[in-house]
User: Fold this.
Amino acid sequence: MLEQLKKWDLAKSNYEALKQVETKELNVNGAKFIVQFNPARIVSSGAKVDAKSIRDRACFLCEENRPKLQKGLDFGEHYTILINPFPIFPKHFTIVDVKHVPQLIAGRFGDMLDLAEYMDDYVIFYNGPKCGASAPDHAHFQAGNRGFLPIEKGWKNHIVVKKDENLSLINYGFPAFVIEALSKKRCICLFEKIYEALPVKEGDTEPKMNILTWCEAKHFTAVIIPRAKHRPDCFFAKGDENILISPASVDLGGVFITPLEKDFEKITIKNVAKVLKEVCLSEKEYYDIIKNLAG
Ligand SMILES: [Zn+2]
Assistant:
């Protein structure tokens, strides 16, 4: 895979640029957030993901449209692991279904765990079709090297309630569920319960969510973040109020991506807290869901 970074100029220059990327740290409600000024990510943060724009473009995850230099590695029966040419992590991959089928998590959470086990130096993450996926029409996950996202270690300091040994409720500036188990079966069973308890909004194909998962010494951890909406008000605001930020798993995992320098300079703790509040669930919505969790 690394051979590609020598030959593929776009990926090579973006990975080189990442080494000099500017960051700053913000403490939001006791949780660590890093803001990363990453101009190459404008392709994702600014991506048009409305149905018409998606229909009118050639899918960049389909094999026939991918750059010839982007060579894949097969995984399982129907996935290909690719280098992500627009990295946030020093090591960043996209894992795509070989078929052009819609981004949906139903029936794929187990695949995420399989990936987490296979790529145990990586956090595997999923952005729902209306929660940051820039290809909502083509099923995919991403993988970024571990030790990069603050939530990976930080979530334990934000446990609100431990429902049982396998399920914790956390508040990381937003409410979320954390599943921990040695058994994949147990993880899948808990995930399915959460999935069933989450509301599906009109016009959506699944409950809005982001998922991050990793595996250490055969022990799985999965953070499930239910979402209220995709983009915050500041994304659409005009003038000084405008901040181009389109939160997905990585941002909620503690690395906020700002593709524009003006936003990197001005973004404050207050802005981040407001974005988290807007795009994630309110406490009331969260506790209503918990009431729906069977067993
Ligand atoms: Zn496709």
Summary: The chain is about 30% helix and 25% strand. The two ends are 45 Å apart (CA to CA).
